Amino acid sequence: MKMFSDSPGQTIAAGRALGKLMKPGSVVCLRGKLGAGKTHFAKGIALGLGIQEHITSPTFTIINEYEGRLPLYHVDAYRLDDGEAYELGLEEYLYGPGVTLIEWPERIEGLLPDEYLTVMIDYIETDSEARELQFLAGGPGYGTLVDKLAQTLTKELNTCVCSRD
Predict the structure, then answer these.
(1) CA dihedral in degrees (134, 112, 100, 97; nearest 10)?
(2) What is the overall mean pLDDT for the chain?
(3) I need a labelling partner for 77 at 20 to 30 A (CA). Which of 28, 30, 62, 143 fits?
(4) Is residue 84 in some structural domain?
(5) How far apart are CA 45 and CA 14, in angstroms?
(6) How many whole angstroms separate alpha carbon 152 and alpha carbon 53?
(7) Longest pairwise C-alpha distance within the chain
(8) 89, part of any domain
(9) How many folded domains does the chain comprise?
(10) Taking each helix axis from N to C terminus, what angle separates 8-21 and 140-157, rounded to the nearest 10 degrees?
(11) Residue 78 sits in a domain of what CATH number?
(12) Number of Cβ atoms within 10 Å of the Cβ of 87
């Protein structure tokens, strides 16, 4: 499923809609270039989980933890490899009771669970604020989640241009 966002606020709203649908043990992998909007999307997920704290990218802390309806574990894997992630105990987060949100998941692919949701965020060349968000289900449970998200985004944002590929 693809969605087009015309502002950081709309990207946050899309993350919020996803956050409301998250269940214990959910894993979301965020992919995109620096500045693409991964942290804005993460802020939205946190809002959807009822988290009011200021959300920042865990670039230097590696993992930020937040409490809400479900715990949120926000991971920046940019400086990790599988071995380092294993030593940090990342598997406990991936299979824990909260939602694990991973930026730069390609760095730790060997530790990822069999099923997870990937959100790819890309710039749209003609507009500095616009983004394309693509939601890729990694498993049947996440396929159902993407379908629910498409319905929610169309209803809540009322301007969402969503398409299933």
Answers:
(1) 130
(2) 87
(3) 143
(4) yes
(5) 8
(6) 24
(7) 44
(8) yes
(9) 1
(10) 130
(11) 3.40.50.300
(12) 9
User: How many CA atoms are closer than 13 Å to the CA of 103, on its beta-carbon side?
Assistant: 27
Domain membership of residue 40 as a residue range:
18-99
Evaluate whether residue 76 is within a structural domain. Answer: yes
What tokens does 87 get?
């030593």
Say if residue 15's pLDDT is above 80: yes
Confidence band (pLDDT; 50, 70, 90) for 137? very high
Confidence of residue 5 (pLDDT cuts 50, 70, 90): confident
pLDDT in tens, 152-164: 888 877 655 555 5
130 found inside a domain: no
Closest CA to 75 of 93, 87, 51, 48: 93
Strand, coil or helix: 92: helix
Distance (Å, whole) CA 118 – CA 134: 8
What integer pLDDT is reported at residue 164 of this predicted model? 54
Q: What DSSP element (H or E) covers 15? A: helix 8-21
Instruction: Give the CA-trace dihedral at 22, 74, 96, 17, to 10 degrees.
Output: 0
For position 77, what pLDDT does the model report?
85
pLDDT in the model for residue 82: 67
Helix and strand totals (H; E) in the chain: 5, 7
